[in-house]
Structures are given as C-alpha cells and as structure tokens.
C-alpha cells in the first residue's frame, strides 16, 4: 500500500523549470511512485487531486510551494522529502557561468545599463508590474508570461507606444531579434524576410520553413496572441510592421496571426499596403479576399506563407493604373450594373477599406441603411430589384447610373468613383457614347476626383471594345479590364498610412547588438548565453514573499 507525504514552504518561489526538475529528481528516488512539485494555486491543487496526489489536510495559499511524494512506504516518502534542499541546491549542468546575479530589475539595469531588452517570464499576477518597471527604465519588453489581464496588456502597450518602445506579449512565446532567438525559437540563418507573428508556434513554423527553403530571417517580432483582438487593436503588430518597413535589411514581410478581429485585420492590411515592400499575410480563419492585392499576397497555410516569402525576395511591385491619385482620406463609391462584379469587388476591398457598405453586403454589418444614400465607402448594385421597379436594367439604360454618378461626384468627400461597363449581345449598343461626356464634364469641375472604369467584354463584341476604352480614356477616366486589377489599384490608393502621433521605435532596437536582462525562467537566460548574447539573470522573488497586502503597502511607501 502506498503512502503520501507532503511539505508546504510558505512564500517560497521557484520558477517552473526548477520545479519541473525537482519533481523529476524526486520521482527518480528509491521507493518513490510519483511526485508533485507546484506552486499551490487552485489549478495546480486540482491537477494534483486528479492524479491522486493531494492529501486532504493540505492548507496552503497560491504563493506557497507544495511538494507531494507518493512512495511505497512512509519511510521512502519521508526520505525523499528530506532530499529536497540538496536537489534544489544542485548546480545545473548547462555550462552557463554563475556570475553575481542581481535580485531586482533596478540592480540589473545598474549592472548592465546598455541592455535594450527585458525578458519577463514571472507568474502572471506579477508580470505586468515587472514589465511596467522595464518600460520605466526605457527597455523593450519580451513578455512571455500568460494570465496577464487584458486591461494590463492594453495599458502596457499604450505606455510602450507613447515611449517609442515595444511590448511583445503577454503570452509571447517566440521572437528573433538581430539573430538572437527569444523564448521558444528555432536556429535559422539570417536573411531578408521579416515576420510579425501573433502566434508563437506559427512563427516557428514559418521561420523554420523559410530556413528549409534556403531563405533567411531578418527579425521575427512576436505580438502575443491577443494583439489582433478588437480591444488591443494590434498596437504591437502596427509597431512591428513599421519597424520592418523601415528596416533596410528586410525585403519581404510576413504577417501571421490566429483568427483576428475583422476590423483590426482590415486596418493592419491597409497599413501593410503602405509598407512599399511585398507583404505575405496568413490570418488563420480570416477569409482572404484574393490571392494578391497590390503589395499584399495572401497565403492559405503557414508553409505557403514561407513559400511565397522566399519566392518574393528581390521582387519589385509597382503601382498600376495611372499617375492621378485621389486623397486617400476621401471616400470610394462603386456604381455597378453587374451584381456579381459588385460582390467580387466588395469581397476584395473589405480587406482594405473600413467601414464599407453595400445594398448587397457580404456581412450584416456592411448593410447600407438607405440604398439611395451612400455613406463612408459604398458599393451599389444598381441592378438590384430595389431599383428595377418600372425601369430598364442599367446594362440597357444608363439614366439611373448617370444620375447616381452626378450625385456622388457632388459630394466633396468622395475622392474616387468606379463604374463597370459590361459589353456583349443584349447590352447597351454604345454605353460610353452617353457615359464618357458626363465623366468628362464631372472631371472638368472636380479636378480632385478620380473615376475608374471596369470594362468587361471582348474584341468580338458589337460595341467595339477598343472604341469604348478610347472614349473613357479621352474623358480622363482610368480603365481596367478585371476586378483583380481594379481592387489592387484601389487598395494601394487608400492604404496610405497616416503618420503616427506616437514616437517611432528607433531602428537600432533591431540592428544593434542584442543585450538583455532576464527576469523569470532561467532557461531563457541559458538560451541567450548559448547564442553568445550579452545577458544577465535576475534572481527574482515575489514582492513581500507573495503577501499582496504587504507588497501593496511597500509599493505605496516607495512611491
């Protein structure tokens, strides 16, 4: 019959790697059947109970160290517990030097003032405080810790943005900065592909595949899994994108995320269009509007994101369509006679324009309140039955579209209007004979307006397609032959990114020698040292031994 013995060490903190090693060492002792070594949180106590390792008489708090041993006899269990101090005192065989270690972040900064990064992997309820202290010292933060509140994450990232600093995380598992891997990172060659990752294992999958394909990584910046949520609003992702955009060593950027908020994804994709570099996007669960829009390439898997990025190295993309550019802060209006063309255009533009509305929406939130009145960016299917009562279809009769065209052009907030011209048997015999003069008159009055024409047809059609195109171009409209081309053009125009009101993150954050202070898991420090990075490790302990009331009092006294 087995015997279970336990020991509680009040306020004794050890990082989770130390606890894991102690548990393994205890389980390997003679007569021991199983062992559990955990901080006595409710979740850990529950796990011990499920594994029949929690004695009923345990009275502990979350900041206590709970050590439980199940053995073949009481004597074996007692002997095992008697070996705990010796096992804890053993030096790890990592080969990492045991220099003097500070016991606070303040002391670590004094010891290594040139450190530009602080790695934080302490328990979640303390992590925000440590990260905030690092920001106060002017350091970028790699925040591995989870169980950080959403409110703390938002506050930390806003503070960092105002200071021109970066907070990667919380729950950021992977990053590569200037060739040095942080957290769980693979050894990959240096190269010209930069990555922004709101997924740790996703980042590892892409960077590893890039390496396997012969490519290399400039930097991989993690954001934490919640960064693309609506509440956080991709603060770190936007900062990371700007950094890689300005980094001359990064030629192609990859964006990877778990399912993002649709509005946040739209804004980030729009910002990516302004990077003036090819950007590969793979947002898991987010419907890609096209395979390619302007500078943006959409992947359908992590491996394909790596494939496309490697192929794009040394490629150049140019703006198509013409030199006349509208104000990117104005609105776009699409006036369609073809419902499918309107739908495909909306599908493509919803990734770049927000908000966008239609009388033929893809999602309910895109529904236009009044089909007779556009708002913000709008796409109208004028062939919808709403407009067809007692009226010919707009592929036969231009009257309704000409009236709506004049209405939209009269709005000074409108900067671009798109018309489709669908040729072929049964359609208007000569549509541009009526449309082109109106377009010319409008553009004579509105020199700040751009009118686009999407011409669908062949050289066999009775309307003479070349004649239709020539008239449109003579009227100073920009002509396209496919939805893909026009969506790409519009996306590039309206992706112009406003200058941020916040300080830019200095590029040397990525390019200078990586130097760090590690607070938390010692394995992260060991990893840095094995990569020849300059780093020191803080022997961190919870404030006031984990006594929250006392810690709060001490903090008030300090302030």
UniProtKB/TrEMBL annotation:
Annotated GO biological process: tricarboxylic acid cycle
Segments forming domain ATP-citrate synthase/succinyl-CoA ligase C-terminal: 335-484
GO terms under cellular component: cytosol; succinate-CoA ligase complex (ADP-forming)
Any one Gene Ontology molecular-function term assigned to this protein's record: succinate-CoA ligase (GDP-forming) activity
SUPFAM superfamilies per UniProt: NAD(P)-binding Rossmann-fold domains, Succinyl-CoA synthetase domains
UniProt domain Succinyl-CoA synthetase-like flavodoxin: residue ranges: 190-297
Name of this chain's protein: Acyl-CoA synthetase FdrA
Organism for this UniProt entry: Candidatus Desulfolinea nitratireducens
Gene encoding the protein: fdrA
